[in-house]
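Hey,

Quick one before I head out. I ran the complex with iron/sulfur cluster overnight. Inputs first:
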Amino acid sequence: MTPPPPENAEPSAERRVLLAQPRGYCAGVDRAVKTVEVALDRFGAPVYVRKQIVHNVHVVKTLEERGAVFVEETEEVPPGAVVVFSAHGVAPVVHEEAQALDLRTIDATCPLVTKVHREAVNFAKADYDILLIGHEGHEEVIGTAGEAPDHVHLVDGPQGAADVQVRDPERVAWLSQTTLSVDETMATVEALRARFPRLVDPPSDDICYATQNRQVAVKEMAAQSQLVIVVGSANSSNSVRLVEVALEYGAADAHLVDYARDIDESWLAGVTTVGVTSGASVPEELVQDVLAWLAARGYRDMEVIEPVTESMRFALPRELRQLSLAPGKEGKG
Ligand code: SF4
């Protein structure tokens, strides 16, 4: 809920909002959230979800209210139950664990993450050492590395590039997490290439279209904003990168908030232009709450900054598409 405007909030023609477009849900997140919703409709509660389906506290809470049960590990799911794997992807060993427990699995891994998994498998088959640029401990990185654990070395930024050890410097390839900063990743690749001149590139960009588009929009917006508000959760890699990109591209101040109520009034001191965007896992209603919160404080003029247009959509996972051929609620066994 948006709080009432403070009594001293005077409308001001100088105050304005720049709203980034594209922002919010990407095709992979939209698909993952719908996957859990459709699974709940078809199988009934509870539907287990391994890890947060997407990295957003509001989305997780809303699905929990509908009967989704979020677990950290496969072994927490009762034998025979329905389990959804999150958009970030899982290692093959997780599929094996699920099979051993006779779970009914629905894999909501984003197709663009699956693409990176396939690249890892192919480079490993050709016996390359794979330098995976990403953040240690991130679920996506764990899943991708799990495709070829004997070949993958994690490179967490340019410093990681200086330290990584490989078997044969003539036979190295790089891959990346899908949600990194484009600029920082290329800086890491250049540092790797300086050490390994024969470094092989991925067949296509690993940083996904949605991550790139949201960063392009925030770059353009940041240069004109004194404050940038990014709606997103602290464990959302692409949302955190948007804050960093905003600061790097000219915003004097930038903050990540889950909800409008998290905005600190003091951030607005002396600010006439506020940029607003949201990470790829953020529902639009949370952005609208932020816009209403700002409007209540005199930031009513709004301009949309849309340097790129987006129209990507993904079909639901195969397991659900097959079910949709047979109407009615399914048994869990
Ligand atoms: Fe897929 Fe990109 Fe969205 Fe991640 S951010 S779920 S890789 S589309």
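The mean pLDDT is 93.

Talk tomorrow,
K.
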